[in-house]
Amino acid sequence: MNAVQINYMDDGIEEEFVPGETAYSVAGDIRAIDCRPKKTCWKLEGSLDGNEFSVIEDKMNAETDLPHDCVIREDGIRIRYLKLTVGELPYNETPCISGLRVFGKADGELPGQTKEVGVLPDGPLNMTVSWKEDDAVGHNILWGYSPDKLYHSYLVFGKNCQNIGALIEGEPVYVRVDAFNESGITEGVVVQLKAGE
């Protein structure tokens, strides 16, 4: 495991906001601007066997309110099970986790570079991107209007062709298809779909 992101969600806040102190009234509705300090306190533990846990990150005494906190371990740690204990949340809410995302890399080889990438126009605002079938878990199609600014992406599993729309008519489009598996990502080569093709 190289990182864990914990996403909390509001679940039925029942705080009373007092007009003039923490809130104001707009057309009869109370709108709150609450500047009082709040805390999000928790402890994350990990285990290989599900029985013996060790602390990965302890924020039970945190003075911060980070509802989408991320724990990073650059060198990675070996775990199979995670346990999250929530201590304190703003407004004494009942804990509600909207996402617990775990990032890491498996042992093994990276996928090979995507081969035979083709980009064909499909009308003035669409293109079809294809590549040779391979053994990657999936592919990420990146595109943009400059070869170093591929800000758009489309994640693909189980196929080697994808239609992409909403392009800017008349602009050259640059595309790169990256292959990925459990061990990481192998970047592809940037190819160009020229305007008017």
Return the CATH architecture of the largest domain: Sandwich
- CATH topology of the largest domain: the name is Jelly Rolls
Please report the distance between the alpha carbons of the first and last residues.
Answer: 45 Å
Structural class: mainly beta
What does this structure look like?
With 197 residues, the protein is mainly beta. It folds into two domains: 3-103, Jelly Rolls, CATH 2.60.120; 118-193, Immunoglobulin-like (Sandwich), CATH 2.60.40. It has strands spanning 3-8, 23-26, 29-32, 41-47, 54-58, 68-72, 81-88, 97-103, 118-121, 127-130, 138-144, 152-157, 161-164, 173-181, 184-186, 191-193. Strands 11, 12, 14, 15 and 16 form a five-stranded antiparallel sheet that branches. The protein has a three-stranded antiparallel sheet with strand order 6-1-8, with no helix packed on it. 13% of the residues are buried.
Question: What labels would you give this structure?
Answer:
197 residues, five-stranded antiparallel β-sheet, three-stranded antiparallel β-sheet, Jelly Rolls, Immunoglobulin-like
How does the SSE layout of this entry go?
Blueprint: E1 3-8, E2 23-26, E3 29-32, E4 41-47, E5 54-58, E6 68-72, E7 81-88, E8 97-103, E9 118-121, E10 127-130, E11 138-144, E12 152-157, E13 161-164, E14 173-181, E15 184-186, E16 191-193
Antiparallel strand pairs: 1-6, 1-8, 2-3, 4-5, 4-7, 9-10, 10-13, 11-12, 11-14, 14-15, 14-16
Describe, in short, the structure shown.
The chain has 197 residues and is an all-beta fold.
